[in-house]
Write a structure and sequence with these properties.
The protein is α/β, with parallel strands linked by helices. It has helices at residues 15-26, 52-59, 82-91, and strands spanning 7-12, 32-33, 37-41, 46-51, 71-75, 95-101, 108-113, 119-124.
């Protein structure tokens, strides 16, 4: 079976607030949106933000953890990009969880929570190159 992820969807509380965060913080723009969901075309998969109640109903989950025990990561191509991106995300509504610093394995990383509490690591890892299409390669 092919190793791939097609879509990652986060349950959110307010669609307009979420779109504003991703637009002003990351510079992302939806490729599709309606009153409940926004989809963003990423590098090889689709990222979605969906009103939590509608996502719970669609999944018939009986309730979703808010947020779940996971983090998302956005790697950048240069160490100098981590802090400015974190500042932009904070200006767009994020909350700093860990200021950018140098982890023992090298690079630079920091953590923020989006307006719905989803955790994002913002990182530069010198051993994980990013190609022109935005694809990250693990530890080359």
């Amino acid at each position: 079976m092919q190793q791939q992820i097609s879509v990652i969807t986060l349950g959110i509380g307010d669609l307009e607030r979420s779109k504003r965060f991703y637009r002003e913080g990351f510079g992302w723009h939806p490729v599709f949106e309606n009153a409940e969901i926004a989809f963003y075309q990423m590098n090889g998969f689709v990222f979605g933000t969906w009103l939590r109640a509608a996502l719970e109903e669609d999944a018939r989950s009986g309730g979703l953890a808010a947020p779940g025990a996971m983090t998302l990561a956005h790697n950048v191509g240069d160490a100098g990009e981590v802090r400015p991106l974190m500042a932009r995300l904070v200006a767009a509504g994020a909350r700093v969880l860990r200021k950018a610093d140098a982890p023992p394995q090298g690079g630079v990383r920091g953590y923020v929570a989006d307006p719905d509490g989803h955790i994002w690591e913002i990182a530069w890892n010198p051993a994980w190159p990013i190609d022109a299409a935005g694809h990250v390669t693990f530890g080359v």
